[in-house]
Each structure stands twice: as C-alpha cells, then as structure tokens.
Amino acid sequence: MSVAADVPDILSPEFEENPYATYRAMHERVPMLWHERMEKFVISRYEDVARACKDPAFTTDNYAWQLAPAHGGRILPQMNGREHSIRRALVAPAFRGNDLKHKFLPVIERTSRNLIDAFRHTGRAELVGDVTHQLPIKIIVDILGLDPSNYQRFQRWYLSLTDFLGNLSQDPAVTAQGLATAEEFAAYMIPVVRERRENPGDDLLSTLCAAEVEGTQMSDQDIKSFVSLLLGAGGETTDKALAGLFKNLLEHPDQLEAVRADRTLVEKALVETLRYSPPVHMLMRVAAEDIELSAGVVPAGSTVILLLAAANRDPARFADPDRFDIFRDDLPTETAFSAAAQHLAFSLGRHFCVGAMLAKAELETAANQLLDAMPGVHLEPGFTPVEKGVFTRGPVALPVRFQVG
C-alpha cells in the first residue's frame, strides 16, 4: 500500500501527458495506492483489475453518482443480479446476429462511405474531425430512427455525458452541464419514445419499445436512459478506438502495410489497439466486503479505480507490453469481443460492454473503407500525434496525406 505521492497523481497534467509512464511506475513500485484527494483506491495489476471486473463482490454502486444523474435515471451498468440480467436480455439481442447484419451493417457502411466521400479525392484528411468524431453518433442516430437534422444536438449531448463520466476532480461546471443535459435529453427523447410506441418502425428504438423478457418490458424512462447511455458510451469508445487504431498503424508503417495487404489482419490490429491504447482507461467499482487482492486488501465500502489501460500493459500478463505489435501471440482475437476477452478495454464478465459487437462492426467497416480510400497514407509531414484524456483517451488530431486516382 502507498499514497499517491509515490507516483504522478492521476489528476495531474504530468499524468495526462503520459499516463503510460505512470502505469509502468505503478507496476514496478505501487500496484495499489490510496488517493487522498479522491478518497479512492487505485489498482493497476492485470490479475487484480480483471478480478474486480468479474467478481460480484466489486459492485457497480458507484454509477449511482458517477453516471446515473447525467442519464436521468437508473442505467444498465449500475444494475446487478436479476435486475441486470433481465435488462441486459432486453437490449442485447438488438446488437448481434441478424439485426446487426441486416439492419445495422448497411447503415454503418453507408455512413462511413459518406464521410470518406467528402475527402477521398482531395489527397488529405484530418481523420479525427472528418471521420472518427462523427461516425459513431451518426450511426447511432440513424439506427435508432431519430431525426438526423438533430445530429449537432446529439453530438453536444454525447460530449457532455462523456465529460460527466470522467469528472474525477468533480468540477462543478462539468457536473452542472451534465445535469442540464439530462433534462434537455429527456425533454427531447420521452415524446419520441411515446410516439414510436404508437407508430413502430424497423429501427432500434422500435425494437427496444417492443422487447420483452419474462413478462418485463422497458419503460419510457428505461429506454430514454439506455439511449442516453448508448450515445455516451457507444460514441466515445468507437470514436477513440478508431482514431487510436490509425494512430498506431501510422506510427508503425510496416504494420500498416501488412494490414493493407492482408485485411484479415484488421481484426488483429484492432484488438492490439484495444490492449495498447484503449479508449477507456479506467472504471470504478465499490467493494461490498473486505477483499484481498494481490496488491493488498480493499476495505468494505471503498471505491476502487480500476486502471484498465495499466492492466493491459502489465508485463506479468503481456510480453513487451509497451510495444504495439499486431502479430503478438499472447492476445487471441477469437474471444476479443466477448466477456472472455484477454484485453480489458470493454471490461469483463457480466458487465462486459453490451455493444461490443456493434463497435467491432463499425471499427472494421470504417478501417477497411479508409484503407481502400487512402493508398500510401501517411501523417502530415512534421506532425506528431498527441493523445488527451484521463478517464477516456485518444488522439486529438490525425492529419494525413494519401495518393489520389
């Protein structure tokens, strides 16, 4: 056990500039520490973080204050036991199988193609602003059957929700904006849900309205909160994962060309990105009882910050963990988008990201279309990519040039 003074403070500018150096220091010296200012434990070892993701003794009670207020009510991640299993069963089928293949994939392909069409004949692009930041929200709005003219409002709401989630320092302005977003979003969404119940269509919102498991259906409030969660969680992870994928490949041209030549490697590159530079760097859990981890004992009632990104770079779990290598043999792709994944980017166990397969479809589709549209792609000469973010993290910009015609 140690205090935060032994390594850079995770609320400090030094940490945000390069969290990976802090993760290395934690692995070497303080795999579990007590953060005085936040009054939370912080853990970084793979075995401890993986256990905290899966063990029911680590509850998601933290979401009652960390997430639910900005979503205007109880949300799936904060539920446990039968309540969680029923609610998850109501929404999960819409994100896999035939719905994903026949309803959502055409939307993903069309949206990605339309964004790329805006620059494919110019020989240059800024991948974050032109593609990754827009793609997931446009797709979510479309598959829900919502009015695309409100896209900018959805983009603003999504950013506010993301800021609320990652508000580790409890900035009152961020909190106030998140609560205002919850009210604004409810005023927009509840009437839309009620109208869709009366006039269902062939869209995700209609599917959620009609879903039933063991006699239970989702209320208008349930659906509104889930859509809000989908905007925040689905938008942020896909945006930063796609940007991170191309940052990693552009910084490793030999692997970029290997992926271009053999598209079966796109999945490997994506999974290695989820390990090496995941979009979500940390989660929180609350200990329901005294829990002994490899790095020490977490007392009952304690809030614990799980450093997913640090665990993904634990040298006790992955060989040469600070090296981006799509050919590594200690990270299987077969289970990478399931609750049995070896990386921790989507958590593990019962709270594994319900939209992981949708994210996979978005990321692989966009990656392949971008590779097709940008032969010879490389970073703008003299440009060095910079990542930002603490709770979630990704490249700020990726200006590129490529061959045309």
From TrEMBL:
Protein's UniProt keywords contain Metal-binding: yes
Transmembrane segments: none
Gene3D superfamilies, per the entry: Cytochrome P450
Keyword entries, A-Z: Heme, Iron, Metal-binding, Monooxygenase, Oxidoreductase
One Pfam assignment: p450
SUPFAM superfamilies given in the database record: Cytochrome P450 (SSF48264)
Stated family: Belongs to the cytochrome P450 family.
Protein name: Cytochrome P450
